[in-house]
């Protein structure tokens, strides 16, 4: 049994498909209101802030994948995320279940220095501090031999369907709707973005690789990083039209954060858009050289047309 804790999001849904396709048909989906992805999925409704419910959800699982997402609200994150992580670690320890944690980069410094698995945490806001706390909790439990665990860490998403990110909502969703895209802060800094189905494929692979445990892994991204200006140029080539864009400067966010709550919640993350964002996934590439990374051109093409480029089909 492999169990997905926090089923229903774009990462979790693609993870469930990948597990079913290449690893196991014995899959349990856990959330407040889980829904089947595959006909054989077992559904368990549970609130992971409840320790007993979490224990019941994990029982009988060889591997549990923690993919829970919460709305971008600092107070909610501070109140719920540490409780969820503590409950999941305790449940996995009690049932001898391996734990795979899907993580992000909010705890990293917002500078142009390359980010590797050994980059020291230096969060500049409340959400970053929470993410750093969660990773530290798991790593300490692993070092203490309470659980076998690993972290799969991803930079900002971009992807098909219901993928939620600033890049999708401000850039590609607007292009797809025939609107002028908005670029946060700077159109000419290099971006590290991860294609959501590729992130899920990689997470499933790590979870089913015995020697991946006890480590943090940067999930695979296209090393040929692009700027927003270049990504929008690719979008123009894909759609056959010239696409302009509007840059939203820091001042716009600084003023808007006092009026619009989502902008206030986004503000601590803006450093990553001001300078190059260099997320290094070479460790994963070295360990899994046959893993096919989705290129930015294929990703943009898939988002805007639904077509897949034959030369970069996933293996």
Automatic annotation (TrEMBL):
- Annotated coiled-coil segments of the chain: none
Q: Where does the source fall among the domains of life? A: Bacteria
Please give one Pfam family short name.
Epimerase
InterPro entries recorded for this chain?
A: Epimerase_deHydtase, NAD(P)-bd_dom_sf
Q: Which residues form the NAD-dependent epimerase/dehydratase domain?
A: 4-179
Entry protein name: Nucleoside-diphosphate-sugar epimerase
User: Organism, per UniProt?
Assistant: Nocardia tenerifensis
Source organism phylogeny: Bacteria, Bacillati, Actinomycetota, Actinomycetes, Mycobacteriales
